[in-house]
Amino acid sequence: MKEDTKMRMLYLAIYALGFFTGLSAYVLSDEIKIDSGERIRFHGLQASAIGAVMLILLLLPYVKIFSAVVWIYGMYIGYAAGYKRDVEVPIISMIAKVYK
To answer: How far is 77 from 34, CA to CA, in rounded Å?
Structure first.
């Protein structure tokens, strides 16, 4: 598998399950040799925050459908990150930049 394909699959996987895969990518960012560790940590934190928003929306009674919209947006961010375009979510990315 080519390196570009591995990188695209990595970023899609980071955003696929949101909180859990984002946290895993943040913790294991130094072990993943496909892209820079700092960029992987940024996207791991951003995916974790988006996943936390999804979980909160799932717990609220009348807005569960919005969690699916947030998931689709997260998958778009993962797709764009695979092509080295960093999409920044307004508040979440500011926090992720501080802790990357």
So the answer is: 18
**DSSP characters for 35-72?**
S-HHHHHHHHHHHHHHHHHHHHHHHSSS-HHHHHHHHH
Interatomic CA distance for residues 21 and 28, integer angstroms: 10
Rounded to an integer, what distance in angstroms lies between the CA atom of residue 14 and that of residue 17?
A: 7
29 DSSP assignment: T
CB 12 within 8 A of CB 4: no
What's 18's DSSP letter? Answer: T
Supply 4's token pair: 């570009």
pTM of the full structure: 0.84
Least confident of 34-38, 57-61, 79-83: 34-38
What letter does residue 17 receive in the DSSP assignment? S
Can you say whether residue 7 is alpha, beta or left, with left for phi > 0 and alpha for psi between -120 and 50 degrees? alpha
Query: For residue 91, how many C-alpha atoms fall within 13 Å in the half-sphere facing its CB?
Result: 3
